[in-house]
Task: inverse folding
């Protein structure tokens, strides 16, 4: 068989992957070899950690440090005045009083060894208090966006053109000034040389900026001939492991600082031929309000069918 008669090789089949992006927009299940460890980037690790982890870590470090100094005080023999010799409990609580600079006056160092150890522990307590205060203040002062995203994205027609639609709402009773949303599609692409790679494609939006984002925002991407999603169904999006990433940025009117939020949708999160229900409700006092709990509610889209009007015969 000549080279011209050799049939072309079939394209590689799409592998069913798990989600690359979590719902919060972070990469999931990605291990980076040779990355900087938490001990080399301690501040970043602490700022990224959750509050319960930080609080437990501070408490554990405080307890462990006092236990260590209590053991060191016992090594000095009868070094603490008004303390029972060899009592680990008295040594521990003396260490707590020293590190916290409480100084009740009942127990005090009475040997040179104890005085030197108290000096070292006072320095530890000074730096520890400064470090703990800085960490707590930094985590409290860090601006965070309180943005709620719809759990699903909808794929339906608007004015005859398929649109990818999802909603986002501001859960705070303030405004996000000069808010902007960027939406990308993470999908496979094959170059002209046959190299297959997965990369981000920007999705054009009908409205990508909002001067004052105070309530809700319906984000719409028209899937026309210029869209990377053109001609793809939800099943094809799933087979191609396509994921949608949305990133919102803006200036918080209360803090005066830039905030950001992100969310990711997989093919399983997309519903075809549906529309979102209204989030605006009427309060008992007659005012209009925003019910954020309805942000993900949707109903099947029923296209409007205009029946032809028949003219009745005029009476003679």
Result:
């Amino acid at each position: 068989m000549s080279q011209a008669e050799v049939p072309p090789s079939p394209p590689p089949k799409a592998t069913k992957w798990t989600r690359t992006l979590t719902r919060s927009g972070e990469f999931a299940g990605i291990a980076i070899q040779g990355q900087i460890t938490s001990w080399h980037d301690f501040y970043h690790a602490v700022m990224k950690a959750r509050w319960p982890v930080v609080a437990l870590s501070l408490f554990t470090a405080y307890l462990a440090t006092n236990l260590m100094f209590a053991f060191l005080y016992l090594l000095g023999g009868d070094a603490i005045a008004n303390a029972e010799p060899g009592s680990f409990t008295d040594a521990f609580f003396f260490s707590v009083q020293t590190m916290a600079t409480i100084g009740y006056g009942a127990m005090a160092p009475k040997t040179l060894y104890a005085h030197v150890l108290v000096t070292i522990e006072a320095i530890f307590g000074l730096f520890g208090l400064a470090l703990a205060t800085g960490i707590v203040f930094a985590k409290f002062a860090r601006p965070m966006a309180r943005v709620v995203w719809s759990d699903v994205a909808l794929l339906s027609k608007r004015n005859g053109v398929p649109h990818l639609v999802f909603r986002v709402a501001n859960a705070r009773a303030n405004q996000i000034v000069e808010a902007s949303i960027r939406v990308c599609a993470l999908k496979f692409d094959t170059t002209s040389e046959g190299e297959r790679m997965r990369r981000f494609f920007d999705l054009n939006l009908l409205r990508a900026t909002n001067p004052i984002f105070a309530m809700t925002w319906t984000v719409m991407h028209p899937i026309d001939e210029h869209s990377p999603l053109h001609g793809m169904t939800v099943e094809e999006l799933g087979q191609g492991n396509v994921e949608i990433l949305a990133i919102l940025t803006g200036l918080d009117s209360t803090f005066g600082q830039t905030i950001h939020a992100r969310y990711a949708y997989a093919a399983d999160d997309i519903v075809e031929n549906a529309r979102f229900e209204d989030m605006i409700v009427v309060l008992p006092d007659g005012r209009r309000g925003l019910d954020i709990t309805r942000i993900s509610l949707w109903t099947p889209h029923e296209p409007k069918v205009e029946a032809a009007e028949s003219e009745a015969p005029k009476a003679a």
Remarks:
- Confidence is low (pLDDT under 50) at residues 6-16, 306-316.
